Amino acid sequence: MATALVTKQKRIKKSSLAKRNLQKLLNNKLAVLGLFIVVTMILLCIAAPLLTPYDPGKISLFERDSAPGGEHIFGTDKLGRDVFARILYGGRISILIGLSGALGGMILGVVIGSLCGFFGGILDAIFVKVAELVSIVPQLLLVLILSTIIGPGVPNLIYVFIFTGWVATFRLVRGRFFSLREESFVEACRAFGIGSLSIAFKHILPNCLGPVAVQLTLNTAGFILQEAALSFLGLGVPTGVPTWGNIMNAAKEIITITESPWLWIPTGVAIALFVLGVNFFGDGLRDVLDPSQL
Amino acid sequence: MLKYFVSRMLMLIPMILIISFIVFIGLEFAPADPLTAMISPDQMSSMTLEDMEAMRESLGLNAPMLVRYGRWLVNLLKGDMGFSIVTGTPITNIISNLLPSTIKLTFAALLVSTFMGLLFGILSAIKSNSAIDYISSVLGVIGISMPEFFIGILALLAFAIRLRWFPAQGRTDVGLGAFGSIKYLVLPACSLGLVLAAALMRYTRNAMLDVLNKDYVKTARAKGLPEWKVYYKHAFRNSLMPISVLICLRLPMLIGGSVVIEQVFGYAGIGSRLLTAINAGDYQLVLVIVLLLSIVSLLASVFIDLLTALLDPRVRLGGDIGGAK
Which of A75, B259, B276, B309 could pair with B271 in a Cys bridge, judged by C-beta atoms 3.0 to 4.6 Å apart? Predict the structure, then answer.
């Protein structure tokens, strides 16, 4: 018994920072709940063909606007398409857009932010101005213009999100770099003759990744909401592709709002639930990585 | 203070210039003849191709791009924004009819969200770990997770269609007087403001808790100040700085959100006009609206910045601006 305790203590002592943080994260109930919601919903969307026999795009004119119950759990829409199937398949695309937009924006923001933060100078001045510009034009408007210029479509929407989403990460990373590059470990690296790029990306960057990960969750949540808003307006993804926003698009008419609530309430709840999960997880992550900002 | 004010105002000029230049370039690449956007449609219909070419020359459309940009900018400043290429109405008319409604909506939403966000944020910081703190934390995270239009549709269904407290189709507020227009404004402004309120509440709570742990709050308490004075004068005033930064960051989102909310409620503002213009391919109108909305959000954030500066004695008393930031 006693020896077991000692070995356990030894293991804790030996465990790395990452392991300790993981343990802290798992002790945070809200974060675990968030992760559970997110993972479950992603799995449900991936397993869509197993969960529903219906094709999300299949039009069946005999079953138009049928209320939930019976064969269709959430009923059918104006064209007789199964709403439950549309929510599951739509989730695949909505989550894909949100995640890949946020990831792309993160990579862009990290690269530009590290270069600007490390080297400073004219490069830095230019990108600070660009970031200021991008953040002053309301993001939804920017997305609106860009998607009208380059046209609708899933990949285009992802590009637009990457283009507008790098700013927050850029500011974070640049700010951290400014304080970290004066630290003595950087001087030590220089004294060893390590190259600048190597110092920037191998030695300083890992110290900035905590807030970047939190920002990634914020962006994912934000992009999923934005995709929904854009497609709701009819400007995001082409109407043929099922996404959460496109399903909600039907709720633009008062008659749909009052007469067929099954069309939009489950979808709205699905969006809110997924974003809620991402936010819970992000909050937990922040508490773990940055105890000062509780 | 004056120096700070002037420097903030001067910084606006290059920003507006750059945004307008980007919009101008957008116009250049838009697949539409600039002539149709510059002269009224009646005049256009009575012209031959040679006339058009002559017109083009006389309007300076064949001049180098920078020259044309300069002229376009001067015209904008004079209030001549050209004509909508789809309906043929002067853009200045469209804007002057609709922009005030949108500004009213956004301002109302900003008021609602600032009031609610600060109130509940402060309450949950003061009574941290109490029932009110937990309830508002949960509501806050749900608030930032809901799509704006979903909140809008739910509000529309509950308060306008089922309970009939407010009109379901909030058309516009033209000619209704101050009180007549308020009932059209309540639902859109509240649904628009709710998301920002939730974000603001979470942020205010954290900023207040941060300040409440500082030594000078302990000192204030130790010297026997009443609690409300500690909270108001020492804690709240000092947490205002980060809060106003967040409001400035979120303002463009609020203005973008107004486009969506106007659509949900059928509110006749510049946002719903923007959508019609996009669907009709009315590039001139789209870009001018985007330019104006960006300038509005720029001005609003400078305004909030100045307001915060007024509350900060370091800035108000003419101290070092760099230090105050």
Answer: B259
**What residues 8-27 of chain B have any CB closer than 8 A to a CB of chain A?**
15, 18-19, 22, 26
Q: Roughly what angle, to the nearest 10 degrees, separates helices B283-311 and A139-150? A: 160
Encode pLDDT of B262-303 as tens digits.
888 888 888 888 888 887 777 778 888 888 888 888 888 888
Contacts of B26 in chain A (CB under 8 A): 145, 149
For residue A157, with 0-12 CB atoms within 10 Å meaning exposed, 13-18 middle and 19 or more buried, which class applies?
A: buried
Q: Which of B150, B153, B256 minimises the CB distance to A141?
A: B256
Q: Does B230 touch chain A (CB under 8 A)?
A: no
DSSP-derived letter for residue A66 is: P
- Taking residue B106's Cβ as centre, other Cβ atoms within 10 Å add up to 26
Give strand pairing partners of A82: A76
Is CATH 1.10.3720.10 the right assignment for the domain spanning A112-289?
Answer: yes
Q: Which one-letter amino acid corresponds to residue A68?
A: P
The answer to whether A144 and A160 are in contact (CB under 8 A) is no
Is A150 part of the contact surface with chain B (CB cutoff 8 Å)? no
Instruction: List the Cα angle B44/B24/A109 in 5-degree steps.
Output: 150
Q: In chain B, what residues touch A280 (CB-CB under 8 Å)?
A: 141
Report the alpha-carbon distance of residue B187 to residue B203 in Å, rounded: 24
Distance CA A120, CA A134 (A): 20
Domains of chain B: 1-91+270-325 (no CATH), 100-268 (1.10.3720.10)
Give A8 or B203, the one with higher predicted confidence: B203
Mean pLDDT rounded to a whole number for chain B: 79
Q: Are B109 and B192 in contact (CB under 8 A)?
A: yes
Q: Which of A137, A235, A248 sits opposite B294 (nearest CB)?
A: A137
Determine whether the interchain pair B259/A144 forms a contact, defined as Cβ–Cβ distance below 8 Å.
yes
d(CA B41, CA B284): 14
